[in-house]
Design a protein that fits this description.
This protein is α/β, with parallel strands linked by helices. 35% of the residues lie in helices and 23% in strands. It is built from nine helices and nine strands. Helix 8 runs parallel beside helix 9.
Length: 238
């Protein structure tokens, strides 16, 4: 089973070395890391290139200025049977890809998505929350995850067939992980697995743990519901 790890980077020089190192140490010979870079102006790409590993595929020069569509580009470039999403500032625990391989055994031809647990760390690497699942009250449920998303991209992996359902990403969705998780539920099988496989870093530049005002959240939910209905074919795009 070839695994593609998709990373969307943007000015991530502070933490990118530790994250890529934690991934490379687990890759098989035929696996790959797909890096889509969104106009970084720091040393992010230099640090990644210095690994000098043929399994790292870099797609620079993008001008999305948006993590959603930067991740979409990374997913488009992936060739693996299993797609694993990765943020640029976390650290994978040593068991992550072994756990993923175990759960995807004999399921790569299915429309199958898993969400794995992890711990939250601060900028210095100190654990500040023992369980992402406990913090978010993570679990399946369309209405539940529209009201409060518990699909965190850095915890997700999915079979290649999911790509046919989720792409292209529509405009104005709140985040890619919400979209992927909900469409996976609507079209296939999703498992939330309480095995801890990463350290999720919380810091002031980290968008995935930020809060947004109520009006913005209402708008995002409206667009999300409309696009989910369109993608499922319940209403017709005019």
């Amino acid at each position: 089973m070839k695994i593609s790890v998709c990373i969307a980077t943007f000015n991530g020089e502070k933490y990118i070395y530790d994250q890529v190192k934690s991934i490379i140490d687990q890759l098989g010979e035929n696996d790959e890391i797909v890096v889509s870079d969104d106009s970084s102006t720091d040393r992010t790409l230099e640090i990644i290139k210095n690994f000098n590993d043929k399994r790292i595929k870099i797609f620079p020069g993008n001008t999305f200025f948006n993590p959603v569509y930067n991740f979409e580009n990374a997913i488009k470039q992936a060739v693996g049977e299993i797609i694993v999403l990765s943020d640029q500032d976390d650290i994978w625990l040593e068991n992550k890809l072994d756990v993923i391989r175990r759960y995807f055994q004999n399921k790569t031809e299915s429309l199958f998505t898993i969400v794995l647990d992890g711990q939250i760390i601060d900028e210095r690497g100190k654990v500040i929350e023992e369980s992402i699942f406990r913090m978010l009250k993570s679990g399946k449920g369309i209405i539940k995850n529209i009201i409060r998303n518990t699909y965190m991209g850095c915890c997700m992996a999915f079979s290649r067939r999911v790509i046919n359902v989720i792409l292209p990403f529509p405009p104005k969705i709140p985040m890619h992980d919400t979209w992927i998780g909900l469409l996976s539920e609507l079209n296939g099988v999703v498992d939330f697995i309480p095995e801890k496989t990463l350290l999720k870093r919380s810091h002031k530049e980290n968008r995935s743990l930020r809060s947004f005002d109520g009006f913005q959240m209402i708008k995002w939910r409206f667009y999300l519901i409309c696009y989910l209905l369109l993608r499922k074919g319940y209403i017709h795009d005019q």
